[in-house]
Amino acid sequence: MITSEESKNDIPRPQHYLKLINDTDRKLKLEWKGDIDESNVTIPSELNPGETDEKASKRTSNASFIVDIYRWKDNSYLYTGQLTEHVHGREYSSAETYYLKLGSFPERNQIQLIKKSEVDETEHTTINTFSEDEW
Questions:
Q1: CA 84 to CA 67: how far, in whole Å?
Q2: How many CA atoms lie within 13 A of 54 on its CB side?
Q3: How far is CA 37 from CA 15, 16, 17, 65, 67, in A?
């Protein structure tokens, strides 16, 4: 007889994916942490403008990806902000894709780094705001 614990373990758990696309004018360094399917605690990656990085979650019904973002300026990386994304699905694997873009507001002398959905053009989240000189 199969116990309920054994049957739970036999159900394949989904794996989730988060893809980020550097759609800015600067090189970015991403430090991935959270529920990523890697043995290290933090996984760094460098993205030139136009490049993409994708990470898989541990096999679970939901995953929280945490990404620290750094921008290349004056020959070093400067902390830019943090992105937290929750991806879930009980039966099937799921994937989310976001662009890291710049929003410019010259009347306020501001540039915003935003996360913009690949699917819904109206969905976006501000990661951080800078003056034009800071960016």
A1: 6
A2: 10
A3: 9, 10, 10, 10, 14
Residue type, 107: E
pLDDT tens, 47-100? 999 999 998 888 777 788 899 999 999 999 999 999 998 877 666 778 888 999
Closest CA to 97 of 13, 14, 16: 16
Largest CA distance in the chain: 71
Supply the DSSP symbol for 90: S
What residues have CB less than 8 Å from 104, skipping those under 6 apart? 110, 111, 112
Give CA–CA dist 135/109, Å, rounded: 11
Count of CA atoms in the C-beta half-sphere (13 A) of 42: 7
